[in-house]
Structures are given as structure tokens and as C-alpha cells.
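User: Hey, my collaborator sent me this sequence without any context and asked if I could get a structure. I don't really work with proteins. Can you help?
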Amino acid sequence: MRVYPMDRERFNLCGSRVKEARQRSGMSQDALSIKLQLLGLQIGQMAISRMETGKRIVPDFELPVLAEALGVSVDWLLGIE
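Assistant: No problem. I've predicted the 3D structure and written it out in C-alpha cell form, which is a compact way to encode the shape of the chain:
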């Protein structure tokens, strides 16, 4: 099965929000990676970089963990609120 980007460039809705929340909290990509790993989500710095630039698909099961690590809601990550 081939996966196509949503708008010819991005494979996720939340990447720009992840970057915004991470930067607002003063966290580096490495620090976020460590925090996510402590919460049980094995994601490295490179995957976070790809997520933020829209080059990585973000599965739904990762959203609650990302939201917890960043101190935001899943709705906020998805641009709903």
C-alpha cells in the first residue's frame, strides 16, 4: 500500500504543533525524545525532526503520549482547539 502526503508535502497534521509546543517549552528534540522514551514511546531525535517537518506519519497511538510529554491536549496537536 502506498501512502500519499495530505497536501503534496506533509504526512501528518500535528508536526508543526509538536514543534511549536516543544520550542515554547524550551525543549530540544533530543530532550523530547528522552521524555517520550521515558513514557514508553521509542522515538529518536531524527524521527521527531521528520515529524515536525511533516515527513513522518504520526500513528494515532503516539498522539496521547506526545500530548502528555508536551503538556498539551491531543485536540490542540491536531489543530481542533
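In plain terms: The longest helix spans residues 15-24. You can pass these C-alpha cells on to your collaborator as they are.
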